[in-house]
Here is the input.
Amino acid sequence: MSWDVISDYIAWGFFIIGALFVIVGALGILRFPDFYTRIHASGLTDTLGAEFILIGMAIQAPSWLIAAKILMMMIFLLLTSPVATHAVAHAAWVGGLNPLTGKDLTYDEVTPTEEEPEGRV
Amino acid sequence: MMFVVASIAVLVSMALVLARAILGPTLYDRVLAGNSFGTKTVLLLGLMGYVTGRPDFLDIALLYALINFTGTIAILKFFRYRTMAGSMDDMRGQS
Here is the structure.
């Protein structure tokens, strides 16, 4: 089992995990009910999904220079994604966008039962 | 081969984020979707660099990561202060 074969398997694992996180994050951005919940989903893809895919690419890097470039890219993404997400959240908050709180978040209206006469609040 | 699989996943997630960018009721949804789309473009550029066997794509991807971040902050500043030209100290009057 030379290094090439091992690195292929490791890279496959990282790519699958990274692709999973990226798709789950994008699905979260699409389906979450409120802007402030979507920020959480976008944070997930930017940091975790991108990092796993970049690690997979770094493992497959043919030379040290390319691995160093990918490392720079990882460090930069790790530093700027949270800052950008925070900037969007702050601008939204200052811009007067109020989070969706209370009952609107529960899509399925729970049928009232004995111990919860008015349904789940 | 694995790069093709990863880039297909990134393309699918780009489509989902694009749907949110179009549907997004508020401005900030669209800015958030644009920012997320840009990060995925960085990933796609890197993967295409590996698929086509051209290492210089990674420089473009790194550059795009820088530009994407700057673009998002610029958009937010524009919608926050209604102008890009003003410096911070004469913004102090506006809330």
Q: What stands out?
A: The mean pLDDT of chain B is 87. Chain B touches chain A through 43 residues (CB under 8 Å). The longest helix of chain B spans residues 27-51.
